Amino acid sequence: DNEIVEYTEKGIEHVLNSKVDNPLFVFASSLILFGLLIIYLYFEYNLIENESEHN
Predict the structure, then answer these.
(1) What are phi and psi of 19, to 5 degrees?
(2) Which of 4, 19, 27, 36 has its CA 20 to 30 A from that of 45?
(3) Which of 24, 28, 23 is nearest to 11 (CA)?
(4) pLDDT at 34 over 60
């Protein structure tokens, strides 16, 4: 889980630090990172739900 967070943070830093004048690239990168975050949160939520059901 921590690897995904680190990867996402590095990706965000890379986008912020890069002097890219192409707004489409920045938008696409942000969209991908946002998608990864949503997937990460979705799986975290599912794991919590499954654990609570078993108890």
Answers:
(1) -90, 60
(2) 27
(3) 28
(4) yes
Distance CA 35, CA 32 (A): 5
**What mean pLDDT do residues 9-20 have?**
73
| CA dihedral (45, 48, 51, 52) positive or negative | negative
Q: Which residues contact 19 (CB under 8 A, 6 or more apart)?
A: none
Residue 20, pLDDT score: 63
Q: What is the pTM of this model?
A: 0.45
Q: Do the beta carbons of residue 30 and residue 18 sit within 8 Å?
A: no
Domain locations in the chain as residue ranges: 2-54
